[in-house]
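I hope you will forgive my troubling you with a question about protein structure. Could you please explain, in whatever detail you think fit, how the structure tokens follow from the sequence? Thank you for your consideration; the sequence and its tokens are set out here.
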Amino acid sequence: MSLQNSTVGADFILLGLTDDPLLEKILFALFLVVYLVTLVGNLGLILLIRTDPHLQTPMYFFLGHLSFVDICYSSNVTPNMLHHLLAERKAVSRAGCFTQCLLFIALVITEFYILAAMAVDRYVAICSPLHYATRMSRDVCASLVTFPYVFGFVHGLSQTVLTFRLSFCGSLEINHFYCADPPLLVLACSDTRVKKTAMFVVAGFTLSSSLSVILLSYLFIFAAILGMRSAEGRRKALSTCGSHLTTVTIFYGTLFCMYLRPPSEKSVEESKIIAVFYAFLSPMLNPLIYSLRNKDVIRALQQVTKGNVFQKIKI
């Protein structure tokens, strides 16, 4: 009991990716560049969607929210990690750890269902093009984007409360570069069965339900595409889905590897490498994927660039 009491109020220590001072400096420079590219890419895409009249459609409405979630998602992890890469003591308070854990879970779940909403949007656009404007009205889009935020933060809060109701013993060293459920459960010295069950139920449900919506949407989409007589029509329909499918594959693939297995020292160590992909690379790649493979976004970027050039010439 004294051991448990001695850890109440104590800070957690994040072990990070490495304890090599030289490698820490290299990683600091690398992740700083990745974070800046993530901010510039996603903020640029949001501004482009808000200002270009040709991008005022449901697809880009959802894409704007995806970029916003990616910014929040990356900002929840990266600044703190960058600080710890240069700090001697990599401590994080319980309140800070609670907040980071809450935001991480909430934003992951939110992104699940925003990606699902984007799949529904593509389904309606391709399978019911004549009714697209009415079925994907402003109110419908607002509902489809509000649900992920509410659902995500409700479950994020409930999961985080369950985690921090546990007793933590020993060194309080979290074998990760941010506060996350699996490595925290390894430190717990009280019964974790309720928390583990809740974690697997919520993770399994959110993954399977959102992915089912995406898979069903694309099942109908591909059936509709195969029924098209025009090769140009098929190509155009597929091109509007390619970016979304790439994002879904990266995001869901890495999270399946991390969360749908029991927490252990080995799985936590492996999850740190997997986490780099979805915590840093996925938010950075999303705006690049949608920019490089989307003619509307490319055209809007070209117009902005030309507009700036003309303004400089006039000045």
The first helix runs from residue 2 to 6. The beta strands are 12-14, 91-92, 173-174. Confidence is low (pLDDT under 50) at residues 1-6.
